[in-house]
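Minimal example, chain plus pyridoxal-5'-phosphate.
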Amino acid sequence: MSDCPSTYFDHGATTPLRPEVAAAMAEARAEPLGNPTGSHRPAQRARRLLEEARDEVAAHLGRDPGEVIFTSGGTESANLAVFGALGAAARRGSPGPAVVVSSAVEHPAVRESCRAAARWSAVTWREVAVDRSGTVDVDALAGLVDVETALVAVMLANNETGVVQPLHGLAEVVRERAPHARVFTDAVQAASFLDLAHAAAGADLVALSAHKVGGPVGVGVLAVRPPADIDPRQYGGGQERERRSGTQDVVGAVGLAAALRLAATEREDTVRRVGALRDRLAAGLTDRLDGVHRTVAPGVDVLPGHLHLCLVGIEREELLLALSERGICASGGSSCASGALEASYVLAAMGVPDEVARGAIRFTLGHDTTGEDVDRALAIVPGVVDSLRHDA
Ligand code: PLP
């Protein structure tokens, strides 16, 4: 975080690499590592570390190690889930044109995969609406899935708002009404705070990304529980049980396993502590500022680290820049690769009017957020907002 050394409220974008994780990765690197497919000592060592990491990730997800596919991150996992599951359904000879149903608030990794699948193949894509709180409407989902549905994608927790979806109930509806459908959940944001063995149990496919949970950038997982199946997206040496060819990033896998282990060990404390800090930040900002809306009403199930606000009369780009100059790192909630802020389809799906969504700001707290960080934000943010309003 060298550009932004002061106060970091952007854990939803990426989390700092935890020192314990860096230490586990350094230990893995300390002795020669071969290619895990080889037969000499360094290769055997790599294979052992990779399989130990796989066992640990599987235990964390409450799944068998054979279900865990290492990937390059959340985006690849989402693409593999969508195209892989649709490919497998086509191969099985699904009873009609394959239909993929996704929630209207999915991350672009899922949403754009669905859009591309619909553009390039005989797949029909339907989006299921969310209510004002950003929660998927169970009845709307029930009305959209049927015997032709091959895949239903509903994220476990939203990256912009932190809203946690009622995945168990949604998965049940899918199983009742769409017997051929597989359920995929993008658990990338949820992994730091939720017990995934329980929270993601209703999903056949689950995606994770290490850098959102204190691990390294560039490694992730897709877990695929039989009888769900995926066709590969990349072909080659047949690694990851023929489902994702390419030499595995052993050190990255060790880092992901270490990050998940830490998150699990500290979960109870993290959820309580981070949730209390987030609540204090929310209460402090709403007390000190006029014209501030909490995008998600209190009482809705939201990850403990997320606080999403809309500030009337504020342009979020200007606000984020002004805050950054004062050492506060927050986010507008959605950004494209150029870093430019885009209009949020998530907020639009929740029925937030455009003029309100213009002033959207997301604070995402993490395991390393402190009371001093919150004090600092409370001391700085209201003044910055007031002066932007004054200058407008
Ligand atoms: N899914 C969600 C919910 C995310 O928040 C992100 C990252 O912002 C991704 C997927 C993509 O993950 P990665 O950055 O590892 O490709």
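The first strand starts at residue 7 and ends at 8. The chain has a mean pLDDT of 94.
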